[in-house]
Amino acid sequence: MNNNQKNILNVRDLSVSFDNLEILKDISFSVNEGDFLAIIGPNGAGKTVLFKALMGLILYDGEIKWRENIKIGYVPQKLMEKAELPLTVKEFFILKSKKLFFKDRQLVDSITHELKSMDLNPSILNKQLTNLSRGQMQRVLISWAILGHPAVLLFDEPTAGIDIVGEENVYNMLHKIQNERGITVIIISHDLNVVFRYANNVLCLNKELLCYGTPEQSLTSEQIKKLYGESAFYHHLHKDNL
Known about the structure:
Elements: H1 3-6, E1 7-18, E2 21-32, E3 36-40, H2 47-54, E4 61-66, E5 72-75, H3 89-97, H4 104-117, H5 134-146, E6 152-156, H6 164-181, E7 184-188, H7 192-198, E8 201-206, E9 208-213, H8 215-218, H9 221-228, H10 230-240
Parallel strand pairs: 3-7, 3-8, 5-6, 6-7
Antiparallel strand pairs: 1-2, 1-4, 8-9
């Protein structure tokens, strides 16, 4: 397979402005099949805005070119307060699945399969979303995102608000799913340990593209200082050496 056949996304000279305020400027990068791309940067760097542009949810200048007929799954950093969703897990899945499935048995089997892939017992289908722990809710959201077998998964801080053990479990399961299905993963993360452990490419963003390449080559101490500042650099360094 040549590089053109592997390519799944090309972004060229992407810029986004809101009310004449420039949020992203001249961002260019590409993603191949099976990549695990981590997007990192300080708060306000434009990471979530980049995701919204990739999904066609906002206006932008430049070019975003996905492979034709690509299917994308998305897990937001925060869907909304669970109290605002008076639904069971099953009802939550049905909101999406009506467009994907035509037979009830196929639907139940598919949902069950995705829940099990995230180490969730199918009995959780009868629980109210408001009664789930943060870790359970996040795994339900990931199961929801992979229903229908998308080729690409976009995750905005997939373990935000989850404890260290839960975070480790989520990333291990994501890595397992990626290996089994050959999917492409693009995540927004603040955890450099996760970047070095799972990502084959990293994109450093602070309104502009500061680095793009393998973590080993791109995330030098000088680049991390430039991205996060001196004090944040030592915080990341200390955390990653724990």
